[in-house]
Specification:
- The chain has 360 residues and is α/β, with parallel strands linked by helices.
- Helix 2 packs across helix 4.
- It contains 14 helices and 13 strands.
- Strand 11 and strand 12 form a beta hairpin.
- It is elongated and about 70 Å long.
- An eight-stranded mixed sheet has the order 3-4-2-1-5-7-8-6, sandwiched between helices. Strands 10-9-11-12-13 form a five-stranded mixed sheet.
């Protein structure tokens, strides 16, 4: 899984950097022809559209952003198609929204399609569907999208190419003594403290890359943050060279269904639980019962994804709830034996079964 950001693709906003893109395409083709399956998550549609339309500042309104994405996406994909064809490879455009990854059926359809494409002489080009996304259905940035797709296809590695040589212990643009972090655990909380913000073209900086690494780690994928302008960066990484920052997963990979649950970014509601229920979830791998729930927040239907929080407001888990919000509120704090008498029916003995729950 390779993700290339807007600043790289557009030469900091000066239009698509065709020479640089050609070099990345050559490296990706080399990997593909060597038998390594590659999915490319490519930013640049909005930035390319801005360049074609003559805009120098990223617009603030949703409709103008969507218009820029529509104008730029065609140019972006055609560029890749032209550059991969000399190697006997085609490209496939895959445009996704958060809903495509949160709905189980659409998630499985996307996974099957990507797996089919990977078996062909094709490079899937993935981007967020900026022309139709709204705040309610967007993933938000392509670092996160890359991590979610890495989980989707169970990738071994997520390579995030950026305009910096990797993750530094301070901002190298402001501190000449900043040191490159060569190796760390993806879940190390100290990493977020040293991550900076993004530039004017992209939607995410190093902080989004750290969060992406944490998401990718849930399926056992390593993440490498490396400079996209480093000579032959992808082939050097494949050869085992120490390039950029290597973020290693320190958790056992989640099973496929729980990877999907962990990838949900937008919750439909919340269940606040007491300390006893928290211990049962975190330490004993138990299901969530109504007796351990303190309160219900939000409006959700049966089968939707909700957050499970402690009374102190810490998000502990997320899962697919067996009762809608109104019914869940009626059985808060009650034993399983009382559910039928309170509701007149019983769907399941648990509010969330452990098979449909992932601890964060």
């Amino acid at each position: 899984m390779v993700k290339i950001g807007s600043a790289l693709l557009t030469n900091d906003g000066k239009g698509l950097d065709l020479l640089r893109i050609e070099q990345w395409a050559a490296q990706i083709a080399e990997l593909k022809l060597a038998g390594i399956e590659v999915v490319l998550v490519s930013s640049g549609a909005v930035a390319a559209g801005m360049s074609r339309l003559g805009w120098t500042e990223r617009p603030g309104s949703m409709e103008l952003l969507q218009a820029a994405a529509a104008v730029g996406q065609t140019k972006l994909v055609q560029t890749y198609e032209d550059l991969f064809q000399p190697y006997g490879l085609h490209t496939a455009q895959i445009l996704l929204t958060h809903d495509d990854l949160s709905d189980r059926k659409r998630y499985l359809n996307a996974r099957n399609t990507l797996r089919a494409l990977l078996a062909m002489a094709v490079i899937p080009i993935v981007n967020e569907n900026d022309t139709v996304t709204t705040d309610e259905i967007k993933v938000g940035d392509n670092d996160t999208l890359g991590a979610l797709v890495a989980n989707l296809v169970e990738a071994d590695a997520l390579i995030l190419l950026t305009d910096q040589d990797g993750l530094f212990d301070a901002d190298p643009r402001q501190n000449p003594h900043a040191t490159l972090i060569r190796h760390a655990q993806a879940t190390d909380p100290a990493l977020v403290a040293v991550a900076g913000s993004g530039g004017k073209l992209g939607r995410g900086g190093m902080a989004t890359k750290i969060r992406a690494a944490q998401l990718a780690a849930r399926s056992g994928a390593v993440t490498v943050i490396a400079g996209g302008r480093i000579d032959r960066v992808l082939t050097r990484l494949r050869a085992g060279e120490s390039v950029g920052t290597y973020l290693e997963p320190d958790l056992a990979p989640l099973v496929a269904r729980k990877q999907w649950l962990a990838g949900h970014l937008q919750m439909k509601g919340e269940l606040v639980i007491d300390s006893g229920a928290a211990r049962a979830l975190l330490n004993q791998g138990k299901s969530l019962l109504a007796v351990g729930v303190v309160s219900v927040k939000g409006s959700f239907q049966r089968g939707e994804c909700v957050a499970v929080k402690s009374e102190q407001g810490l998000t502990l888990a997320r899962g697919l709830v067996n009762y809608d919000a109104q019914d869940a509120a009626k059985i808060v704090g009650q034993s399983t034996q009382q559910i039928k008498s309170l509701l007149g029916f019983i769907n399941e003995p648990e509010l969330i079964h452990r098979d449909n729950l992932v601890v964060l």
